[in-house]
Amino acid sequence: MSTEDTEKKHIFDNPKNVQRVLYGLFGCLVLLLALEPFVHKHSYFPWEESFGFYAIYGFVACVLLVLAAKYILRPLVKREEDYYD
Amino acid sequence: MIEFIPPAFIYIVGALLVPLLRGRVKSAYMLILPVISFFFLINTQVGTAWEINFLGFDLVPFKVDRLSLIFAYIFHLISLIGIIYTLSIKSDLEYMAGLVYAGSALGVVFAGDLFTFFVFWEMLTVSALWLIWARRTKASQAAGFRYLMVHVFGGLVLLAGIIMYISEQKSISLGFIGLHSPATYFIFIGMGINAAWPLLHTWLPDAYPESTVGGAVFLSAFTTKTAVYALARTFPGTEELIWIGAVMTAFPIFFAVIENNMRRVLSYSLINQVGFMMVGIGIGTQLSINGTAAHAFAHILYKSLLFMSMGAVMFRTGKIKATDLGGLYKSMPWTALFCIIGAASISAFPLTSGFISKSMVIDAAAHGHMSIIWLALVFASAGVFHHSGIKIPFFAFFGHDAGHRVKEAPPSMLIAMGIAAFFCIFLGVYPKFLYSILPYPVDFVPYTASHVLFQLQLLMFSALAFTLLLLSGIYPAEIRAINLDTDLIYRKGGRLFYQVMDKGLNAINRTVERVFIGEFIVGLTAFVKQLPAKLLAKICWPFWKTAFEAPDKKTIHENLLKRARSGFYPISIIGLFTAIYFALLFLL
């Protein structure tokens, strides 16, 4: 089993395929923003009216989430794995 | 002719026969239990209620309405999936615990009175405990005890509330309660502990990752969702729940981002998802209660699917930490695929179950013009994609190849995951199926152009954030470490309390002991002992001094003390006392 596996090339062993996934993602992002003017919005809140609100909110939220978790929460709560033993 | 048997009865009594059977018969028997129970259930009418008079109380052990039915349907489905999943794990203890656990949850869902409700509620805790202990490690044993302590405490709080409430209302029927008196607050908090509210949540990420491979699948489905049902039944429209829920959706994702143990990541995202349900209950409109029920239904499927995929990884590799995993798509492609479907559902991608259920709750918040709550929920939606939707599949199946070359998960596990994955997509593609069994009539269209586009924008730009952070090296590296949680408050708080009590109360105790026992009593005894001798010496010394050539004062004093101890005094002294005595008699 293992010898067969090491010989076999898997899809993401080829860096080109990883590149393709990334380009696919970037293509989707552009497409999603390009479609926005053609969609009829029925908003509940004023900020939903502005262009790309969800895109910006999603991006900023995740960056802040990761930064807060890494630089604020982790230093506070990180302990050695045998902390409780 | 038996017309109907309650599901709880079938499950719990059925569980008792499991150890008596062997091999394929046992497997077939366990699979048929949920099917029989479901068959009875679909033939019951909404509004059925059994009443029994017991010690002057009207017990209603079985009562059906649409809210209980939708929870019962999903509990049947997930118990069947769970049983299929665990068929390759030959453990009677887990089978029995799992069946009793599912049966107890069904008992809670159909309970029409507080007494029945409480009995099944406690059985949930007791049976769940064995799914944790069945792992038979030191860590699981300890986690099980902590689980037990928290839930026994929660059960007692609930019981206190129920007893106070019954004496207030003079009725044990279970229905809308609402927050208005101390009794209702006790019930509210008792249920909240099972729902893993913020600060009361630490039992969940503590115990679930320590449970068995199959146990986590059952655990992820029943305890919290039974609490969701109970709160939806008794506290709909309670505003506090909106805020509790909003906090629940937001805070666990920060912990999930830095967590190394994959099943603990899933535990945190479980709390996050239950938060959406809490918000739905708190808003209390028909749309939001429908949203809560739909989200519970969808959530049980994709969350258990994620726990099943991580369980399969653990079953094959023996590892569950992100630092030990990676590249598994090469040897477990089907598990990877099912995991991705579960991850897409929890992230609420269009055409998956999460999209058609979560959006009901978020829309209900928007209808109520709750801007802060709405922003928190959308933030949590982006965040859950980030830590559950991407992190789980990426670190387990892709990312850095940890070099595990294992077999694909056993067929029973793949079938169970396949069924759950099928429902995740089926509900997303054909939402009418789920909407038709919701408690209230549904007037909600999930698939509008703007809704789909905005959800995709939100998710894809979250994915962009993940990609950029990962490529730039800012994304927090998975490290071998554990993270503290708010159990710190009562863990350290408990120790602080102990020390304050130790230093405070024991200090008083010690001081009193020293002063009273050590000094006062000793002093008093010495004083009483020496009193006669000293008194005599005082009285007699002038006479002795003049009477004859006496030895010095000290010798006489010691002499007297010795006599005082033994009780013998010189005759002259006794004579003196006798004379004084008679003199007093004569004078008085």
Keyphrases for this structure?
heterodimer; A: 85 residues; mainly alpha; 2 domains; 3 helices; 61% helix; flat; disordered N terminus; B: 588 residues; two-stranded antiparallel ribbon; 21 helices; elongated
User: How far do the termini of chain A sit from each other?
Assistant: 38 Å
The two chains with the largest interface, and their residue counts, are: A-B, 49 and 50 residues
DSSP helical segment count of chain B: 21
Structure classification of chain A: mainly alpha
Mean pLDDT of chain B: 90
Give the low-pLDDT segments of chain A.
1-5
Q: How many H/I helices of chain A?
A: 3
Order of helices and strands of chain A: HHHE
- Please summarize the sheet with the most strands of chain B: 2 strands, antiparallel
Number of E-type strands of chain B:
3
Q: Percent range for helical residues of chain B?
A: over 70%
Question: How many E-type strands of chain A?
Answer: 1
H-E string of chain B? HHEEHHHHHHHHHHHHHHHHEHHH
Measured distance between first and last alpha carbons of chain B: 104 Å
Largest sheet data of chain A: none
How large is the radius of gyration of chain A? 21 Å
Strand content of chain A: under 5%
Rounded Rg of chain B = 36 Å
